[in-house]
């Protein structure tokens, strides 16, 4: 079933271009989003005044990316909550609140209970789910299925990129319904999305180099991940992957937070992955992250940068640059996450660990 791959995870990482392609299939026509999946929810979209995204683990990081996209495109306030915290916060929910749950399995008990809570409180519910007919999908008013195909490895990879694609489709659809984005910008964003599968193929070609790096780092005790804006959830995801697969202490930070404490952790030789925004970023985040790199480099950090190909500003300060193809800011995470997935898998392999079935973990967490 692994089709020649050494693990399901390796296979699923390689299937990411297809996971995105299939999630978009039939949902983009004439530069517009077509989502018949929304069913009864479609007629309520104009009245929605707030969105709460609920999910756990990797799915929650897809949710964070969904927040950036939905707020930017549809100009609607979005909050992201861990499913298991949501109910206990006595959340404000009305019939105009849309609660979007994200779950690969569709069976995560924490998320299911949160969805049921939202339904009882009278909110509208939409689920983004990778498993046909799963409980969370059946409970929700509507479901947008991600078509990543079955994900077997405990560590989520292809489901994550498919979740981002589904959220972005929904965001662009909402923008069109609410008239918050000109048709030309929607069309351009859809072009970006449709270009992702081919770009993912290119990122996958970095795998041999990442395997080498990971091989040299098998006795590493801690790895830090930095990112900013959409790079921040990518940093969190990189750290989660490394914890669960390689049992290495890993932490993701928003790069701007460094000087507020975490920079104290930097000592000579400390590996730090940095997800670098594109130098074309209109908010000058690129320059800010490059200056973060310089600060930690001066304190001896070993910098592993995931940066846009041709980003010359990073080169002098990084020990290693893993290049990703050019993409619009919101779309970079779909590419930048892949080297971090591969790194975690290869480091776990170098340590002789089972990457498909890490200790203490189950693929689907069906207890609260
Ligand atoms: O099936 P779900 O998407 O609801 O699962 C959510 C998390 O349990 C899951 O993403 C978990 O964090 C993964 N093992 C991460 O790789």
UniProtKB/TrEMBL annotation:
Its EC number is 2.6.1.16. GO terms for molecular function: glutamine-fructose-6-phosphate transaminase (isomerizing) activity. Keywords: Aminotransferase, Cytoplasm, Glutamine amidotransferase, Repeat, Transferase. It comes from the Bacteria. It catalyses: D-fructose 6-phosphate + L-glutamine = D-glucosamine 6-phosphate + L-glutamate. It is found in: Cytoplasm. Its main location: cytoplasm. The active site is at 363 (for fru-6p isomerization activity). It is an enzyme of class 2 (transferase). The keyword Hydrolase does not apply. Homodimer. Catalyzes the first step in hexosamine metabolism, converting fructose-6P into glucosamine-6P using glutamine as a nitrogen source. This is Glutamine--fructose-6-phosphate aminotransferase [isomerizing]. The gene is glmS. The chain holds residues 248 to 615 of 615 of the full protein.
